[in-house]
Amino acid sequence: MEVKQFVTFKIDEHLLGINILLVREINRILDITDVPASRDFVRGLLNLRGQIITVIDLGVRLGRLPRKVTDESHNIILKANNAGLLVDSIGDVVRAYENEIDQPPSNTGGIEEQLISGVVKLKDGLMIILNINSLLNHL
Amino acid sequence: MQTSDTSRIHPLAENGFSVAESRNIEKLQGEASYQSPSYKQKPEKSESIKINLELIDTLMNLAGELVLCRNQLRRSLDWDIEKQKRAGHILQNFDLVTGEMQELIMRIRLQPLSNIMNKFPHIVHELSNQVKKEIEIVIEGGDVELNKSVIEGLSDPLTHLIRNCADHGIEAPAEREKHGKPRSGRICLSACHEGGQVNISITDDGRGIDVDRVAQKVVEKGLMSMDSISKMSQMEKMNLIFLPGLSTAETVSDISGRGVGMDVVKTNIERLNGQLEIESIQGAGTTIRIRLPLTLAIISSLIIGLEKYIFVIPQTNVKELICIRDKDVTRRIEHVMGAEVLRLRERLLPIARLADVLGIERTFFDPLTGEKLPDLRIRISERRKKEDVTIDNSLGREKKALELRGETDDRRCSRNKDLNIVVLSSGKNKYGLIFDDLFNTEEIVVKPLPVHVKDCMSFAGVAIMGDGRVAMILDIAGIAKAANFRFAEVTSEETRRIEEENPKNEIKNSLSVVIFNIAPDEFFALPLCAIYRIEIISQNEISQIGEQQFIRYAGAPLPLIRIDKLLKVSPLPENLKESCVIIPKTELQPVGILVSEITDTADIPVEARDEKHIGNDLSDSIVFKDKMITFLNIEKILNRIFV
């Protein structure tokens, strides 16, 4: 049975996860340049060692309010698309066997259904696994 | 060349860190060209090796990063370099080496245009056989070098344009003879450097573009309605050939006529950050001009600020910077049907506010609470105008109240209210853009616009600044579009006017003069070449000793001349806060001429001065553009004073 690892993070009270293989790095470069007249979920651009990364406000992307930058805020830089996600806080890396991942329930009101690729039941709650492809594709 | 190169590398080696580096390079070279023979043995033969493009790209990126690092280092050391002379020298050296390295690495990617141009004689020869025309092609400037990727991207558009010339442009020999042209048509393909850009032009002496037929075709194909086309100027109609799906050729041939063409050429050129212009005289030929940036990676640019944002404008687009003093804003900025224009040297320049174009909210600091609040005044100038009117009509008490309010008004705006305008050009079009703060010029590394912000047409790319921050590069053409400027008409109007103003030959025999006031509405002129400097001074800088006035200039007292004391002209207004001092070039003792305001510069035809004029030996007057202008004879005036 294959074990998958997930980077977990929080948006408001929700615990979300991304497959660790999709993540390039996690950082706290919060010197993000705002792009006027861009779409609302584009938080801005940052310079990652000479590469321009588009930071997406995951809050807005998931249909919530723009994130406020706090001491806990982090950018999750993805390997694909030179994109990064601004999240409220970073959690542990969670390991899960494939059969532990459930299909997303059909009544996920808060978040668009196609953005979720599964749910993992943890001891103290649920972790929602984001579908990065559809998250970036719809931009 | 060779020797100078090595001598520049030496100081690096002395610093002691280049040895390992150079070994690495040798290793790289060794890997790339396996067991390449030592270059010392055969210096006479120019050798080349095949290098993976990816390697060069990485090297380019690293060079870019190195330039960034240098800028960061320079900035952080700037303030204590005074104390550390040695560090200054090292930094200067470092500067030089990085600069040169960057240039060389850029040059690796440069290739001569002849690589693609050389195939055109062959293509044209084949084409001329195919279409049974006599065509010759002249190629100039094949040695102009461009980035390899640009060269590759140019190949298709150029081929297309040449085919167009051969198929559509050049007429059949019989037709040419009928019009009194030589039997064989001529296509000229030339390239040259011009101020950081490469200009490529393709000229044919064929039949030119029939603008009305293009318009007619557009309507026939249903691409646009008759209505919208009838409103267009000739220039705009000409640009219709860039519409997708258009062809004016009667028949579809192997060569052209399928209607996929000019639009693809245009998008291809624009993808290379180039600009495409077309000029055509019916019956005499067509010229297509392509302007390309020399390099795509590092450009020198102007850094400006607006609210909390920082923007970058490529230096090649910047024509001039204008600062309009707070008090002059209402006078200089005028409105035409709600659009703002600036009177710049007797031309109207359309202007846009960057904040409005980008939809940035204006803010100001509340003087009482220090809070940042949105500024509800949309156009400061308009509001001022209204206030002025009320002051005029109001009674004393109200006036006082308004004045008081005006005072708080001044304080509440933390920002300097002088208006900064940058005059930009894209192609032949010019417009002004209002912004807040002017910073500096800087070499920036250009990165392409990320996918997620591609839809913002106001930006051309992303810049990484010297301090590592990211800033958006403004797209000059995109902003013009976003601000709804309609240039084609303006341009044609402009050309008409220029032609009217300068009936050809006159241009050569003109004299550049500076026009100024002493009293309002009395105009004086001095040739520009006779002026050394113009200084703006405030009234309290003038000190008086008896009849003579002085200012401090370059550490010494400079006597001032009052023209109104020499000639019978109206005196300088008493209550001026600021005035100008013109310092003429002279071999006698330096003096300043006190005037109230510099109003303009102009090119005045020399003949105008020979015509009837009134005057004495100190001055003579002419009428130019409905104004009476008095020329001062500066030599005689100075002689009169000193002798």
Structural class of chain A: mainly beta
For the record, give the distance between the C-alpha atoms at the N and C termini of chain A, rounded to a whole number: 34 Å
> Biggest interface pair, residues each?
A-B, 24 and 27 residues
CATH class of chain A: Mainly Beta
Spatial strand order of the main sheet of chain B: 10-16-17-13-12-11
Parts with pLDDT < 50 across at least 5 consecutive residues of chain A: none
Tell me the domain tally of chain A.
1
Give the class of chain B from helix and strand content and strand pairing.
alpha+beta
E-strand count of chain A: 11
Count of DSSP E strands of chain B?
A: 32
- The count of helical stretches of chain B stands at 21
Helix content of chain B: 25-40%
Spatially, the strands of the biggest sheet of chain A line up as 8-1-2-11-10-9
Rg for CA atoms of chain A = 15 Å
Looking at the overall shape, the CATH architecture of the largest domain in chain B is Roll
Distance between the termini of chain B: 57 Å
Short characterization:
The complex is a heterodimer of chains A (139) and B (643). Chain A has 139 residues and is mostly beta strands. Chain A is built from two helices and eleven strands.
What brief labels describe this structure?
heterodimer; A: OB fold (Dihydrolipoamide Acetyltransferase, E2P); six-stranded mixed β-sheet; B: alpha+beta; Helix Hairpins; SH3 type barrels; 21 helices
General description of the model:
The complex is a heterodimer of chains A (139) and B (643). With 139 residues, chain A is mainly beta. Chain A has a single domain, classed as OB fold (Dihydrolipoamide Acetyltransferase, E2P) (Beta Barrel), CATH 2.40.50.180. Chain A is 7% helix and 49% strand. Chain A has two helices and eleven strands. In chain A, the strands form two sheets. Chain A has a six-stranded mixed sheet with strand order 8-1-2-11-10-9, with no helix packed on it. A five-stranded mixed sheet of chain A has the order 3-6-7-5-4. In chain A, a hairpin with a 2-residue loop joins strand 4 (42-48) and strand 5 (51-57). Chain B is globular. With 643 residues, chain B is α+β, with helices and mostly antiparallel strands. Chain B has four domains: 2-109, Helix Hairpins, CATH 1.10.287; 113-293, Heat Shock Protein 90 (2-Layer Sandwich); 299-482, SH3 Domains (SH3 type barrels, Roll), CATH 2.30.30.40; 506-642, OB fold (Dihydrolipoamide Acetyltransferase, E2P) (Beta Barrel), CATH 2.40.50.180. The model of chain B is unreliable at 1-40, 377-415 and 503-507 (pLDDT under 50). Chain B is built from 21 helices and 32 strands. In chain B, strands 10-16-17-13-12-11 form a six-stranded mixed sheet. Chain B has a six-stranded mixed sheet with strand order 29-21-22-32-31-30. Chain B has a six-stranded mixed sheet with strand order 23-27-28-26-25-24, with no helix packed on it. The A-B interface holds A 31, 33-39, 42, 44-47, 49-54, 56, 81-83, 139 and B 61, 64-65, 68, 308-310, 358-360, 445, 447, 450-453, 455-456, 458-459, 462, 464, 468-472.
